[in-house]
Design a protein that fits this description.
2 domains, 329 residues, 39% helix, Glutaredoxin, disordered C terminus, Cytochrome Bc1 Complex, Chain D, domain 2, alpha+beta
């Protein structure tokens, strides 16, 4: 397991969320036998690789544990990492590498992992891995990512381990944290580069989870990885106007326990599952109060969208030709 050395990060949200930061001596980081086991794994393409020699040595990496049949955190975890990959752009696969290791290798064959990757639009530089159950368990313990399967309904905690093997810097953080913050930590802190492209303020990629109202914060935390409000479908449907289309009790159940709706053969839930590439929505454990904030926020954004659309329609009616009425310079 990683040595538990804590340091204080100055500035930004690191002070707020408490990240485990580990600085390993260079001679330890460079010795795979002491720090990282050379566990044999299999990629989604069926290629055999060795964890330290082929995946970690000399690289900046982001590593998480997951499994494809997970109904709780894993889908959100994968969607969040997909957002981080999008922000980092073509650096992923060049100087940064992502690895997702299945903790259910009996089910998650290379073929299953490849299909799962396609559902979440995973790009180059992100490898999904399977192997022998006992070896993956051992590896996860050495990485400090292991939890007893009884810890929760997921059977693990959604942590993301990011690090620079060459310099010996390692951080462990929530895998479902703000994607822009994660990308900044990976892209800037670990190698001191400034390669990140500016994220558009209105981009659906940035959850902007700081200094928000309650509903916006919850949407950014639990929903934005797969959904937008008025910006089109993502991994899941656009939620613009959903509170007008669906019964509130149905919405509450779809947010909290979508698996129950599917088990009951709810026609809407089944149709949505088929439409969106069989990506099953995770069970989001929001409280009644949080659910109220979330629904209110969706309604607020829908109303704002309607007003904006109405204003555009009036402007078009006033100036149907779209001619430029600006005075000549």
């Amino acid at each position: 397991m990683l040595p538990k050395i804590w340091v204080r990060l100055i500035g930004g949200s690191a002070l707020l969320i408490g990240i485990l930061v580990v600085f390993l001596p260079s001679h330890v980081a460079a010795d795979g036998s002491k720090m990282f086991p050379n566990t044999e794994l299999i990629t989604q393409d069926g290629k055999t690789v060795h964890f330290y020699d082929d995946l970690i040595k000399g690289r900046i990496v982001a590593i998480d544990l997951m499994y494809t049949s997970c109904q709780y955190a894993c889908p959100l975890e994968t969607a969040r990492m997909a957002q981080v990959q999008k922000i980092l752009g073509d650096r992923v696969g060049k100087d940064i590498f992502f690895y997702s290791i299945s903790i259910d290798p009996e089910h998650d064959t290379p073929e299953v992992l490849k299909e799962y990757m396609e559902k979440f639009h995973v790009g180059p530089g992100w490898t999904f891995l399977t192997g022998k159950k006992e070896e993956i368990t051992y590896l996860s313990k050495r990485l400090g990512l292991y939890y007893n399967p009884s810890v929760n309904k997921d059977g693990h905690v959604a942590y993301l381990l990011i690090g620079n093997e060459e310099t010996g810097q390692w951080l462990r953080n929530s895998a479902v944290d703000n994607p822009s913050f994660q990308a900044r930590m990976i892209g800037d802190f670990l190698d001191n580069y400034k390669h990140l492209k500016p994220v558009e303020q209105n981009s659906s990629v940035d959850s902007g989870a700081f200094h928000l109202n309650q509903g916006q914060y919850i949407f950014g935390r639990d929903c934005i990885a797969c959904h937008t409000i008025g910006h089109g479908d993502g991994i899941g449907p656009d939620l613009l106007g959903v509170t007008r289309l669906r019964d509130r009790d149905w919405i509450a159940r779809m947010i909290r326990t979508p698996n129950q709706l599917l088990n009951e053969k709810d026609p809407i839930a089944i149709a949505l599952l088929k439409k969106y590439n069989n990506v099953q929505m995770p069970n989001v454990a929001v409280t009644n109060e949080e659910l109220g904030y979330l629904i209110a926020y969706i309604e607020e954004r829908t109303t704002a969208h309607d007003k904006e659309a109405s204003g555009d329609a009036k402007a078009a009616a006033t100036n149907p030709g779209g001619s430029n009425t600006q005075p000549k310079q």
